[in-house]
Design a protein that fits this description.
The protein has one domain. The protein is about 35% helix and about 25% strand. The chain starts with a helix and ends with a strand. By secondary structure, it is an alpha+beta fold. Helix 2 (about 40-60) runs antiparallel to helix 4.
Amino acid sequence: MNRGQAHTLEGTIASLLLLVSLLVAFQATAVTPLTASTSSQHIENQLSNSARGVLSTAETDGELKPAVLYWNESASSFHNTPSNGFYTNDPPDNEFGRMLNATFDSRGIAYNVYLAYNGSENQIRYVYRGQPSDNAVSVSRTVVLFDSDRLRTDTGGTDRTVGDVSSFYAPDVGGNVYNVVTVRVVVWRI
């Protein structure tokens, strides 16, 4: 009878050891949706390619520069923005805004757009949708503004040039070139 109890005890201890070792192994290798993997790298590559495509298309179609010049001189902010001076829920009412909306909003992808000038020393928000996640990607394009470039509205160009306006977000660096603006798009999965 003692031998049967010893085997039962031995079997119970062995199964507990096996169970504990499995629990420790699972704790050490926890996989979460935010764990780095080849699939998340693939998603980041897709997001980067999408953002690069939007910027490239906007530049090729001649829509990126008008987006940078979409400035309301009297309000000292971009056209139709809330009091914070940048777009939040709705993208800008220009072709670049429509491209952003078609590419990202329809797929549940969040994005911010920043405009940097003076060699990226200064940056303002153009579109701000929140704090990017750790897996966010960033893509940028450069736009050269000249003193003779006209400010834009919903319907086209105005009679005012960036050289005429004192309230424009980027200062005049002197010469024929008014300033160089870097358009940076940051995208991430929600």
